[in-house]
Each structure stands twice: as C-alpha cells, then as structure tokens.
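Below is how a single chain appears once it has passed through the pipeline. First comes the sequence as given, then the structure the pipeline wrote out for it. We keep one example in the README because the format questions we get most often are answered faster by looking than by reading.
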Amino acid sequence: MIEDIITDSEDRMKKSIVNLQKEFSKIRTGRANPAMFDSIRVEVYGTQMPLNQVATISVPEPRLIVIQPWDKTNLGPIEKTILKSDLSLNPANDGNLIRIQIPDLTEERRKEYVKLAKQKSEECKVAIRNIRRDGNDMIKSLEKDKDISEDDSKAAFARIQKLTDAYIEDSQKLTDNKEKDILNL
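Resulting structure:
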C-alpha cells in the first residue's frame, strides 16, 4: 500500500517536471526552436489542427525557421495564424514556404520571459507540493485506519519528502538553465 502511494506520487511529480519542460520550450530565447510552434493550431480543411500536422518545421540556421506546408493552399492560413499568435514573429510567405527570421530579444522582453519562466516554475513547485500533500493524506488515513504502524507512516512521510525535495530541485535547475538561455545571448 505504501509503495503504491509513493510510486503514484513520484509518477505525478515526474509528469509535473515534463509539463514544465513543455512550457519552457514555448518560451522564446532568441534562437530558432521548432517547439515554439507546438501550441499553434491552424484552421485547415474546416478544422483546427496543430501546425506540425500540416507542415514541416525546420531550422536551417540559428535564427531562421522554415515552415513548408504539405499542401500549398495552407500557406495563407498558416501565415495568418502565426501573425495572430503571441510569438511576435513576422512570417515571410514566398508562395512555396514560410520563412521566419527570429529577431533579437529586447532587454525588456527578456525580463518578461524570465518572469514568465519563474511563474511556470512556481506553478510546477506548487503542483509537486500538492502531490506531496495528497500522498501524506493517504498515508495518514492508512495510519488512522490502523492499516500501517506509526513508524511505517513516518518512514513513508520521509520518503515522500525526499522525493518532493528532489523534484523541486529539478524544477529549479530547469528554471535556472532557461533563465540563462533567455539572458545570455
């Protein structure tokens, strides 16, 4: 029973870290990164589809992204969607593909992105602490129902706390690295 609770808590904490990595991949650093477009959905064929399902996204140079739709009739909708997005990018449509130059980030914009990264990190840490609380509550209820001894519950609390500390540290490392990426260009 205790092992199941700890395993479940660890799995959920891992998912929080994976989610944080996905969130960080959406934050611009001044370098071209196809992951910037993961949240972009384009209206094609009467439905909303992820951009990476209607086009190939490549990075031929550090500051250039090339988007080549599989169907050239989708060039217009893709271009409009990118212009409307919150990425602040200007796509150049040449009739066959879309080129996007990634501009340098201003100091002000860098600070905004660092602030956003820290916010996402804090949300991740809160999620990890909530998972710890859920695990601890389950262990308390097992102890209250006399399914486990007081010593077993104390040991389980310690293990869950150790997991929590490790995942919060992972979150902080990811945040520090993202901050360096944003500021040191």
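The chain is about 55% helix and 15% strand.

See the next section for the split statistics.
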